[in-house]
Amino acid sequence: MSNKTFNSSLLDANYVLIWSNNIGKENVIPLPYVVLKEIPFALEAINFIAKTMITEDNKESIVNLKGTPAEKFLKTLSEKYGNYSIAFATVSADDVSYATLKSFDTQMGLLNLNSLSWKWSSVNEFKKGMIPLPFSAAVQKVTSSAMSEIKKQNQEKLL
């Protein structure tokens, strides 16, 4: 399911807080949805990039961005903010679809702009349990849990 209507400053703030707590707020330049939708090709690029996080060989698939809106988007970001790694976090649902489907996926990854490769990536599913959680709390729970798992897999180093 494509989530083209997502607009939640609460969830954007959740992702920024999690990244800031884990790598230091001085290392985070937040680009929430309301900003991204104003950058040409950003949403199309992020959809393309997010798909590469979940492929079997995400190193191969990210290289295939040459000539795509994703390449233009990443070039724009690196020119504006520097050639740093970029963290991506996406959620596959919104409040309405979560209430209907009772589940959603989150994807998180750290993309190195110099090598165009993923330092790490993670896909996590949340399914509503016996005790229902509001959508924002469910996203916070699955994101925090994913970050803990990523830190374990990378010897506590995220960058």
Structure description:
The protein is of the alpha+beta class. It has one domain (9-153). 48% of the residues lie in helices and 17% in strands. The chain contains 7 helices and 3 strands, in the order H-H-H-H-H-E-H-E-E-H. A 3-stranded antiparallel beta sheet has the order 1-2-3, with helices on both faces. Strand 2 (103-112) and strand 3 form a beta hairpin. Helix 1 runs parallel beside helix 7 (135-153) and helix 3 packs across helix 5 (69-81). The two termini are 30 Å apart.
Please outline the helices and strands.
Layout: H1 9-23, H2 33-36, H3 42-53, H4 58-63, H5 69-81, E1 86-91, H6 95-101, E2 103-112, E3 117-127, H7 135-153
Antiparallel strand pairs: 1-2, 2-3
Helix pairs in contact: 1-7, 3-5
Order of helices and strands: HHHHHEHEEH
Radius of gyration (Å): 15 Å
Enumerate how many helices there are, as a single number: 7
What is the share of helical residues? Answer: 40-55%
Low-confidence stretches: 1-6
- What general outline do the C-alpha atoms trace? globular
Beta percentage is: 15-25%
Which strand order does the major sheet show?
1-2-3
Please give the alpha-carbon distance between the first and last residues.
30 Å
Largest sheet: 3 strands, antiparallel
Please report the total strand number as a whole number: 3
Classification by helices and strands? alpha+beta
**Overall pLDDT:** 79
Number of self-contained structural domains: 1
